[in-house]
Automatic annotation (TrEMBL):
Keyword Transit peptide: yes
Known function: Essential component of the TIM23 complex, a complex that mediates the translocation of transit peptide-containing proteins across the mitochondrial inner membrane.
Upper taxonomic lineage: Eukaryota, Viridiplantae, Streptophyta, Embryophyta, Tracheophyta
GO biological process: protein transport
Organism: Ceratopteris richardii
Domain of life according to the entry: Eukaryota
Family: Belongs to the TIM50 family.
KW Glycosyltransferase (keyword) present: no
Compartments reported by the entry: Mitochondrion inner membrane
Record-annotated FCP1 homology domain positions: 78-195
PROSITE patterns in alphabetical order: FCP1
A GO CC annotation given for this chain: TIM23 mitochondrial import inner membrane translocase complex
Protein known as: Mitochondrial import inner membrane translocase subunit TIM50
């Protein structure tokens, strides 16, 4: 009886290991398919828009923050244990595309899926030939559930927005997606040390 239990346990362990190996191989195959699909520009844009990303993306963890950087406002003295959540803007809270370069297929898919979207005019740093500031037209898609997410996170945490975008682009965009002012601080490209 004892021998049968040992054999059953070993058989179960073998099946568990085989299952884990199969899942790992399927994950690898899926990542390879996504990588291959990213080589085709139209498919790459659809994948980016859908939020599919490789499961493993090595990141350097050699980040040092100086104590007195002054990037964020002082902590609220009423609740010193309140969390701080830093959220990236582009490709996280929203997906924004220059309107002239937006593929019609992508826009029609977004409309069919019911995504909230809006158009925005942003003043560019570059000047045109006459020395006037250029205006870029941007189509912005909100991530599904964005407003509910901001509402819930702001209940227990200070919400800080980070973007590698410039303030002229990002500030009006954030004003539009955060009318309730749940985002307490905004960090734009100049706040980056390394990009």
């Amino acid at each position: 009886m004892q021998d049968q239990r040992i054999i059953a346990d070993k058989t179960e362990n073998v099946w568990t290991i085989l299952w884990e190996v199969l899942v790992q191989w399927l994950t690898l195959l899926f990542q390879l398919l996504i990588h291959a699909a990213e080589a085709v520009p139209a498919i790459k844009q659809v994948l980016e828009f859908s939020g599919l990303r490789p499961l493993y993306n090595p990141v350097s963890h050699n980040c040092q923050i100086s104590a007195g950087s002054g990037l964020l406002p002082p902590r609220d003295s009423k609740d010193p244990n309140r969390l701080t959540v830093v959220l990236d803007l582009d490709e996280t809270l929203v997906c924004a595309y220059e309107s002239t370069g937006l593929p019609p297929l992508l826009h029609s898919q977004a409309l069919r899926s019911g995504l909230k979207w809006f158009e925005l005019q942003c003043v560019a740093i570059e000047k045109d030939n006459d020395g006037k500031s250029r205006v870029n037209h941007v189509t912005v898609y909100e991530r599904p559930g964005l407003q509910e997410f901001l509402r819930r996170v702001s209940e227990f945490a200070e919400v800080v927005l980070f973007t590698a975008g410039l303030e002229g682009y990002a500030s009006p965009l954030v004003d539009r997606i955060d009318p309730e002012r749940r985002i307490s601080a905004r960090l734009y490209r100049p706040a980056t040390v390394v990009s």
